[in-house]
Amino acid sequence: MPLASTRRTGLVDQVISQLRAQIDSGEWGVGDRIPTESELSDQLEVGRNTVREAVRALAHAGLLEIRQGAGTFVRASSELGGALRRRLERSRLRENLEVRRALEVEAARLAALRHSDEDMADIDRAMALREAAWRDRDMSAFVEADFTFHRSVVNATHNTLLIDLYDDIAQVVYASIAHTAYEQNDGATNQPSSETDGVDHSKLTEAIRSADPAAAAREATCYIDELLSLTED
């Protein structure tokens, strides 16, 4: 919506509100690159300096991330999420895993109670990709598939607040998966660490499929506790 008719006073705030609305509506999802400064200037019919100030304000709030040479990306879906993500990024791996346990154990329980056939298909698809990547010893594909699996379980809860919270810490979850899945001193080999061979999600998948919330919560607790056992205090 053009903003040319808006009086100059508070114009930056108007642009901030417009950009925030794009994020709130889901049109720009977490991880998406937003239009360029020039494109936004044309769309909103305001000067590029105004757009630049608005983008910087949202970056400061934690909603956007400006990457030199790559563009500007959505970092969180809310100011709370941005603040939470910044805090998690300063935390230790053990603390991140403990936060994951708090969210993922409840997500597993709710997914067992509420999943649809479509949700189950998404979980199965992610499991298949995860297993194939493991067989191929493809590091990047394994981490991506493992994250997709956990995200699919969270989606199956149909709890929008839980889903939003998980989205807000997605970058930290992804980083913790990569960190615990592979030996830190062997990154150049692109090979999964043998220490993660025992982290199996098949029982969790079957507990969700069987609509067994207690078993699903137990399996989610087990895999997080296993990962915690591999980390230093």
Provide a compact summary of the structure.
With 233 residues, this protein is mostly helical.
Notes on the protein architecture:
With 233 residues, the chain is mainly alpha-helical. It folds into two domains: 11-75, Orthogonal Bundle (Arc Repressor Mutant, subunit A); 81-229, Four Helix Bundle (Hemerythrin (Met), subunit A) (Up-down Bundle). It is built from eleven helices and two strands, in the order αααββαααααααα. It has helices spanning 11-24, 37-44, 48-60, 79-89, 93-114, 117-136, 139-155, 160-168, 170-181, 202-209, 213-229; strands at 64-67, 71-74. A two-stranded antiparallel sheet has the order 1-2. A hairpin with a 3-residue loop joins β1 and β2 (71-74). α4 (79-89) crosses α8 (160-168), α5 packs across α7 and α10 (202-209) packs antiparallel against α11. It is elongated and about 55 Å long. It starts with 10 loop residues before the first helix and ends with a helix. The model is unreliable at 4-9 and 183-198 (pLDDT under 50).
Instruction: Characterize the overall form.
Output: elongated
Helical stretch tally = 11
Any low-confidence stretches, pLDDT <50, length ≥5?
Answer: 4-9, 183-198
| Main sheet record | 2 strands, antiparallel
Query: Would you state the CATH class of the largest domain?
Result: Mainly Alpha
Number of domains: 2
Structural class by helix and strand composition? mainly alpha
Going across the major beta sheet, what is the strand order? 1-2
If you average the pLDDT, what whole number results? 82
Strand content: under 5%
InterPro entries: GntR_C (IPR011711), TF_FadR/GntR_C (IPR008920), Tscrpt_reg_HTH_GntR (IPR000524), WH-like_DNA-bd_sf (IPR036388), WH_DNA-bd_sf (IPR036390)
Organism: Nocardiopsis tropica
Keywords: DNA-binding, Transcription, Transcription regulation
Protein name: FadR/GntR family transcriptional regulator
